[in-house]
Amino acid sequence: MLVFARPGCEKGAGKLCEIAADIQYLNECVIPEMRRAGIKSMTIGEIVNFARLGDLLKCGFCPRTIQNVDYINYSGRRVFFVDKAFLNWYAGTEEGKQNEKFCKYLLEQ
Questions:
Q1: E strand or H helix at 25, and its extent?
Q2: pTM of the full predicted structure?
Q3: Residues 6+ away with beta carbon under 8 Å from 106
């Protein structure tokens, strides 16, 4: 168990917000444009590359580099969050170690 809403967890909470924004952008903007362009079979790599292309400007979207590709995947329908990858990264940060100690303390009470 980890708590991201408490003070001192800004790095983890911020990263979660970034990941959520990337997922929303890919699901709501990029994937529909790829489907309109006739691309039926996609991989997460192709979706991320398409997001960086300037062709999206024609559709009214700004190209965007997805920084959090390590924490997302594609199911064939939608991009989704890979919590295990995120938690492995977070556990290695100083904030994550402090968060884990805090949660263990709470469980002992």
A1: helix 10-25
A2: 0.82
A3: 3
